[in-house]
Design brief:
Layout: H1 2-9, E1 12-14, H2 20-25, H3 29-34, H4 40-57, H5 60-65, H6 67-85, E2 92-93, H7 94-111, H8 120-141, H9 144-166, H10 180-190, H11 199-229, H12 232-246, H13 261-273, E3 283-285, E4 289-291, E5 294-296, E6 301-302, H14 306-310, H15 326-329, H16 354-371, E7 372-375, E8 402-407, H17 410-417, E9 420-423, E10 426-429
Antiparallel strand pairs: 1-3, 2-8, 3-6, 4-5, 7-8, 9-10
Helix pairs in contact: 4-11, 6-7, 7-11, 8-9, 11-13, 11-16, 12-13
């Protein structure tokens, strides 16, 4: 099947639904008038957009340049959680906190702005993000007027950001080439890409980044913590790996991640059970082809259900159970080479932000597990923690994840190293 899939990859292209706005609108003429990043602008962008994102926006070098911003936001979040751990009311709405982290991180990386958590600008950003998640429902239910209004709001938001970045007196918030919008403006002004890059193209790419990057990492972090709180033995095992490696350094750095093999297994299993987007970006056939004996005609839009593939009992034993250890014995990756697990897609159209997304998820989860021992509130049992999903582009957990963070004590650290597990203030041998 992999050989057949690679051969078919050359016969498929990203459809007219390539970008998030086009994906939601499906070439609606009304919406084209509402948001100029559709129509011809999207068609031209589809040809060169992949190279722009892969080479200029999400290259390994560029992702590394975001490290100080990522580390700062994780530090702020861990500090805030520590405040809850030290207070009488220890319950943390981890869903809300991680979603705020995702929004703030993408604002800093893409736009060079850090909004106050409770300020009006952050509320506006969150409202736009929430609206974007529901737009596909509007298309299905025929609420085109709401869709038009939403795209006009997006257009105004992006234009404000562009105007700010064009102001010569503006101080850059990031070193080097600046944030992502700075880079896109440079590409347009210097005509240094293979397509006729214009403001509509830039807005369309911002739409992709806005929707694709704001939610997916945060959603995956929440699902990972949900799975771990329902599997305490797995949580203890991955915590032991992290704490043995990091010791008393105080935090997990990006350089530590390649050594945390069990953490990577946990993240893979989370992506298998809870892919951030259950349906991959649609493809369109460029020519007639045969797939599993079925004849597919040209210009057929193809949807790939990554969620169903990852739970197929033909490929997975006990497919609905959270069992990360399977990845310690099998060389299955999530970077598009093993088609039984493709949360980021595969081939030439794989998600260009895959490495940034993985780094975000691994680093946040590692620091959560290193810094705190996590428990459920007293009135909630692990088996009753729900895994229901909200409608939308990303697989948001329907009900917020509420957890109790406890700061790890030095005596607990020493007990773990001695082969004991701290339980309720005392230690017992393993």
């Amino acid at each position: 099947m992999p050989d057949e899939g690679l051969a078919l990859d050359t016969k498929f292209r990203l459809s007219g639904l390539l970008h998030s706005n086009m994906f939601l609108c499906s070439n609606s003429s009304k919406v084209e008038r509402g948001f100029p990043g559709t129509g011809d602008a999207l068609t031209s962008l589809a040809e060169g957009g992949e190279k722009i994102t892969a080479i200029h926006l999400f290259s390994v070098k560029k992702i590394q340049s975001f490290s100080p911003v990522r580390a700062d936001e994780i530090f702020r979040m861990v500090t805030k959680i520590s405040g809850f751990a030290s207070s009488d009311n220890k319950v943390v709405n981890l869903s809300k906190m991680v979603m705020a982290f995702g929004s703030t991180l993408i604002c800093r990386i893409a736009f060079g702005k850090r909004y106050d958590d409770k300020g009006s600008e952050m509320r506006r950003f969150d409202e736009l993000l929430h609206e974007a998640q529901l737009l596909w429902v509007d298309k299905l239910t025929g609420l085109i007027d709401r869709l038009e209004t939403a795209f006009k709001n997006f257009d105004s938001f992006y234009q404000e950001l562009i105007d700010e970045h064009l102001d010569p007196s503006r101080a850059k918030m990031m070193d080097g080439d600046g944030d992502i919008l700075d880079i896109l403006i440079q590409l347009k002004e210097h005509k240094s890409c293979s397509i006729d890059f214009n403001w509509d193209n830039i807005k369309a790419l911002l739409m992709n980044i806005f929707i694709g990057a704001s939610d997916t990492s945060a959603v995956s972090i929440i699902w990972t913590m949900t799975a771990l709180i329902k599997a305490p033995k797995v949580m203890k095992k991955v915590q032991a790996e992290i704490r043995d490696l990091i010791g008393k350094k105080g935090k997990v750095d990006e350089d530590d991640l390649p050594k945390l093999l069990y953490l990577k297994a946990v993240i893979k299993e989370t992506f298998r059970l809870y892919p951030p987007a259950p349906l991959l970006v649609p493809r369109e056939t460029m020519e007639r082809c045969i797939l599993e004996g079925y004849e597919i005609q040209p210009k057929t839009v193809v949807y790939i259900n990554a969620w169903a593939i990852a739970r197929d009992p033909e490929y997975w034993k006990n497919p609905d159970e959270f069992l990360p250890d399977k990845f310690l014995n099998h060389n299955i990756d999530i970077k598009g080479q093993d088609f039984e697990l493709i949360p980021f897609g595969s081939g030439r159209r794989i998600c260009p932000g895959i490495f940034m997304g993985l780094t975000n998820v691994e680093l946040v989860v590692a620091n959560f597990l290193y810094s705190f021992d996590w428990e459920l509130p007293p009135d909630i049992r692990a088996q009753y923690v729900d895994t229901d999903v909200l409608p939308g582009l990303a697989m948001h957990k329907k009900n917020p994840l509420l957890l109790l963070p406890n700061k790890i004590r030095e005596e607990d650290e020493e007990s773990e190293k001695a082969g004991c597990i701290p339980i309720g203030g005392r230690t017992t041998a393993r």
